[in-house]
């Protein structure tokens, strides 16, 4: 079973990703690391612990990570995720404030060293924690088997969700993304242009009726679905982060190609843009696998079936 660390900025789709990762029974989840992103780090930690309590798996520990991006001011997405980050759907669940003393980047280094060549990092938030870990221990590039990243936008210019050409996770800390992209790690990029094909519609949510997660999925997604209806005319929520879990479990659901991808950190218009050199104009060796397409209906069904069996 693949050993993984899941790095989150727990908003709604992060919550679904945590549920999917644990309920799939196909990943050995060593721990969850939290990072500032969709919501501030205090919310991230509280939301993560609430989700673990909802699942009934509080044995998995959450580790507090970066509360700020490396250089820029923090950005949050309450308009998509609601005022608490998970659509106020778990107000009835209380969690304590107890946390590990281990800083998330240090936990990543510790586990990578312990499981050299046999650990995968799944990153579904800004890449600040991993960048900090790499700055402290560059040998991570040798120790980690693969890093699967939800981030970026490579084939659909103008279709970003933070700037026209920028996806939120990369925009939230583009300097961190640049460090990761140039680290020598084995990277797989699951971008917005692919994740946006994986909508869990309100209609398909009804397939979960009578199951453990139905109420949470419907209630938590209300704000997200309202945003999607306004922006895309779809009553549903894209499974951005759960798809990244799906790729870590079964990469055959996506089509990938190896390319060199750079991150823009200077332009006001394009800060956080992920630029994929499809034609090798820069004459650089590929630094990652880029996801270009997904069997979207197959994946959404996989996601629903996993939650049904919980």
From TrEMBL:
Family annotation (InterPro entries): Inosine/uridine_hydrolase_dom (IPR001910), IUNH (IPR023186), Ribo_hydro-like (IPR036452)
Coiled coil residues, start to end: none
GO cellular component, one term: cytosol
Known EC number: 3.2.-.-
Residues covered by the Inosine/uridine-preferring nucleoside hydrolase domain: 4-300
Keyword match Magnesium: no
GO biological process: purine nucleoside catabolic process
One MF annotation (Gene Ontology) recorded for this entry: purine nucleosidase activity
Entry keyword set: Glycosidase, Hydrolase
TM region positions: none
Top EC category: hydrolase
Pfam families documented for this protein: IU_nuc_hydro (PF01156)
Name of protein: Pyrimidine-specific ribonucleoside hydrolase rihA
Species in which this protein is naturally found: Sporosarcina pasteurii (Bacillus pasteurii)
Organism phylogeny: Bacteria, Bacillati, Bacillota, Bacilli, Bacillales
């Amino acid at each position: 079973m693949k050993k993984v660390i899941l790095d989150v900025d727990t908003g709604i789709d992060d919550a679904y990703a945590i549920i999917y990762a644990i309920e799939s029974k196909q990943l050995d989840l060593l721990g969850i690391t939290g990072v500032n992103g969709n919501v501030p780090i205090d919310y991230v930690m509280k939301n993560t612990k609430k989700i673990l309590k909802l699942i009934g798996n509080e044995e998995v520990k959450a580790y507090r990570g970066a509360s700020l991006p490396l250089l820029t001011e923090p950005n949050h997405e309450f308009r998509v995720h609601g005022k608490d980050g998970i659509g106020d759907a778990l107000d009835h669940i209380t969690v304590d404030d107890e946390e590990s003393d281990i800083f998330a980047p240090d936990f990543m280094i510790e586990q990578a060293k312990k499981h050299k060549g046999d650990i995968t990092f799944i990153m579904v938030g800004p890449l600040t924690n991993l960048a900090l870990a790499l700055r402290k221990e560059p040998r991570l590039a040798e120790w980690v088997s693969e890093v699967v990243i939800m981030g970026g936008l490579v084939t659909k210019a103008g279709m970003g969700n933070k700037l026209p050409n920028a996806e939120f996770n990369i925009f939230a800390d583009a300097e961190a993304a640049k460090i990761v992209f140039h680290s020598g790690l084995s990277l797989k990029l699951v971008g917005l242009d692919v994740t946006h094909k994986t909508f869990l519609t309100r209609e398909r949510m009804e397939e979960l009726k009578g199951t453990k997660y139905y109420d949470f999925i419907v209630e938590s997604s209300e704000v997200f679905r309202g945003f999607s209806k306004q922006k895309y005319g779809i009553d549903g929520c894209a499974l951005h982060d759960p798809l990244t879990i799906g790729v870590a479990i079964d990469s055959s659901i996506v089509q990938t190609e190896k390319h060199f991808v750079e991150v823009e950190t200077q332009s006001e218009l394009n800060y956080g843009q992920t630029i994929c050199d499809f034609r090798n104009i820069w004459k650089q060796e590929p630094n990652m696998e880029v996801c270009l397409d997904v069997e979207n209906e197959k994946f959404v069904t996989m996601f629903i079936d996993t939650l049904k069996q919980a």
